């Protein structure tokens, strides 16, 4: 694969992920209900994790891959806790 094609594909992926993060941020801020805000937060952490993975591919640095793994784990736990709070009104039973 040509390096120019790889470069432009990575640039396009980064641009698309930043645009998706901005849209998720607006949904998180303007969401009419709390469920919409939780979905916006969930989408925001997934997009940030993917953006870090693309940065890791671009630079070849493994630190980005480890940071994206931590974001994925913490984001999943936060989404489960928020969903449980919205369903029952308490996180710890």
Automatic annotation (TrEMBL):
Compartment annotation: Cell membrane
GO molecular function terms noted in the UniProt entry: sodium:proton antiporter activity
Keywords of this entry: Antiport, Cell membrane, Ion transport, Membrane, Transmembrane, Transmembrane helix, Transport
Family: Belongs to the CPA3 antiporters (TC 2.A.63) subunit F family.
Any Pfam family the entry gives: MrpF_PhaF
Cellular component, GO annotation: plasma membrane
InterPro entries (alphabetical): MrpF/PhaF-like (IPR007208)
Membrane-spanning intervals of the chain: 6-26, 38-57, 63-87
Descriptive protein name: Multisubunit potassium/proton antiporter, PhaF subunit
Membrane topology value: Multi-pass membrane protein
Chief location category: membrane
Domain of life where this protein originates: Bacteria
């Amino acid at each position: 694969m040509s390096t120019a094609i790889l470069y432009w594909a990575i640039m396009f992926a980064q641009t698309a992920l930043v645009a998706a993060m901005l849209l998720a941020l607006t949904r998180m801020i303007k969401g009419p209900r709390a469920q919409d805000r939780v979905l916006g937060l969930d989408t925001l952490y997934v997009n940030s994790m993917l953006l870090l993975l693309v940065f890791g591919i671009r630079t070849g640095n493994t630190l980005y891959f480890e940071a994206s793994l931590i974001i994925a784990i913490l984001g999943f736990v936060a989404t489960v806790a928020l969903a449980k709070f919205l369903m029952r009104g308490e996180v710890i039973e």
